Amino acid sequence: MNKSKADEEDYWNSSKYKAFTFDDEDDEFSTLEESKRTVNSIRRLVEEDEGEEEVEKVSWNGEPVGCLSWSVSETAASNQRAEREPAFPKINTLTNSKTHSGYSLSSLFKGKTKGGNFQSFTDSSSDSSVRLYAPELRKPKSEYKDYVSDWSPEETVHRMQQGKVVSLERFRSLQDKLLLLDSGVAAHDGNVLTAVLIYLKRTLSKEVLFRELEPRQTALRHLIHYLTETRDQTLLLELLRALGRTEDVALLQYKEHLSIAEDNKRRDFLKSCLSLPFSPEDSTHVQDHYTLLERQVLIQATDRQAERGGKVERALILNTPLITTLDYCCLYHYTEPERTFSSPLNIRQTFKISEKQYFVTALAARAKLKAWPDVDALFTSRNWLGFTRKKSPLGFQRVVDILQKNSAPTQVLQDYVALVDDAELRIALAQRHKCHDIVINTYRDLKDRQQLLGYRAKVERGSGEERKIDELLNNLQIRWKN
Q: How distant is the alpha carbon of residue 166 from its chain centre?
């Protein structure tokens, strides 16, 4: 229905919009002021429309749009149509001679620059380099599909395995979280299971989390390993206590001694650990550890006083293994009586060191110091008739190797090479270490004339070994096999 001229005047007078006139078309400032009011009015309308989800969104030309993002080309087309339709207020587009503008599409309508500094619309309009565009209000919902879709626990885990971004926040109920956890376990993917456990640890109380993990042993072991790797000692201790694993709690507390640097404090801490509920085997280990550290503190304090008296400086033994401590005592306290705490025999008795381990350690220590009488005494054994013989808890081949590594002289080596039972092995060791008498005597005992003749060519001409071989070859009382 056509309106009369009076009705049109009433409409413009009662509307919140002012009539558009061409009277001040040549006045640029008036045009910009009118554009400012128009755009601000449009922004308020858009903000009101955004709060109403059911209202259909339309563009400036009145056509419905599928999303809320307006492109620059649509805006330009709208501006062209606005020039042909004077009923809509005209916004002048200023020509921009610069390549880049200091404003974004949305900041022009909010009065902010890209840098975040507030600037009024009038100030921005006064810059001839500014080009006005319609704002980009919101991305289409299709772009947020991966974040807001109602994925099942299995689908969520599958997408996590594919490396896609998913939100676990939608799993709010305990039942949904447990279904997600079970799906993570079934996927056999450690990274996925770790992510799910981190989410459950953050959103569930410790009591509920511990209770639900107890029947799920795979997830429980994975969480214990994760807490161990991240060194979350507090939560790990609470978890083990809740599960009733007292021995694991004790071992975890015992490991804290590694972070104690001061020796006396570490010793006192180990003493406090003796009352923890260890298994019988672990309890013995902790007791020995405390006793050893206590012994090391005493030995080193005594030796430091001796060093200040002018003796040679010795190595440090604090926090060293038991065998290292025994080796130290075999080097510097070997002759001390058994009743002293630094005696090797006392240490052997206190810590129940096996005969073989003690023998090897003492042999290497005394050979290192070239104390050959002490080495010989280790092998001397006296039977009930009073006769002495050499006896070793390990093979004499190993004894020869230890002595040779410590640069034992040939005379010492051949005494022990001769004690090797196997003839071929004895000959090989004697040839390797140039124990000629052992080789000659062995061939004589074997009555092997050909081997003895062959070995005669290997010894030095005119030496005592050559003369000995000649005497054996000329001995008519020996019945040679060949």
A: 26
